[in-house]
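Most newcomers find our protein records easier to grasp once they have seen one. To make this concrete, we reproduce a full record directly below:

…
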Amino acid sequence: MPIETSLTALLGVKHPILSAPMDTIAGARLAAAVSAAGGFGILGGGYGDKAWLERETAKLAAASVPFGIGFITWSLAKKPELLDIALGAKPRAVMLSFGDPKPFAPHIKSAGARLICQVQTEDMARQALDAGADILIAQGTEAGGHGASRTTIDIVPAIVDLAAGRVPVVAAGGIADGRGLAAMLMLGASGVLLGTRFYASQECEGTEEAKKLICDASSGSTTRGVIFDLSRNIIWPGPFTGRSLVNDHARRWMGREIELLQNMPAVAVEYAAAREARNFDIAVVFAGEAVGLIHDIPPAAEIVERIASEAEGILLGRRNSSASLQA
């Protein structure tokens, strides 16, 4: 029996499983596949590529499935037309991360879309609620890509307590199977948002080489820091850093970040060439600590069904055990 929560009711989906908006590798094909399987797929708006966004939203608009679109919030401040393109595709929700959502919330909500805000602290959650967030994503440091320092098992119940039932809270960070979904529901979350697990799916637009590296990695194979941002000539504000697979480039610069900052122009040229050549000894693969649980590259629909089924079995077993103890 499907797991029904305030999240599934609000978004009108079967399973409380969301796919993360992982920049341009989370394209229309992945978002549509997750939604068609009963989850909620979120297109990655990333840093804001207008042509890409127009192309991918057109595909989603024709797919006849519910979907969301996610943005790095400050990219909208630089390119406000991106939000108009997104809302023109009639998404069920828009997700904002890493910045104040208040300037964009009225436009999103007046268009009839739900506002999803990803947060890493209670202060960020209060800011999001004040802006009118309909859903909060409580992201732990185990998550791949950009985030902060608090663990998922710490930040999720803290945000659940702060939300106090006003809006659903979704857990993110280090989750890749039904055990993770069941655990987060026990912590009070109404669902989960998964990035790395859907990175290693057939519909993700990431390279096959990167997907294989995720499958071959262990949970101890990731690191959080600024090396790859500096190498891409991108400066993220504190407290945000990026979690990625450890490679030769990361090992070269660990503990030498100041020196890397001083040599950014030269390193950026080397890095750009490696990225173009798909040389992942240098180029980044953003991935979370859930890599240790990922060993295959199935269709996204299979991932959704597998996680939902496993979590349902765990929760049913728990209910049956509780009933037996009370009998």
Observations:
- DSSP finds 16 helices and eleven strands in the chain.
- The longest strand covers residues 67-72.
- The longest helix spans residues 300-326.
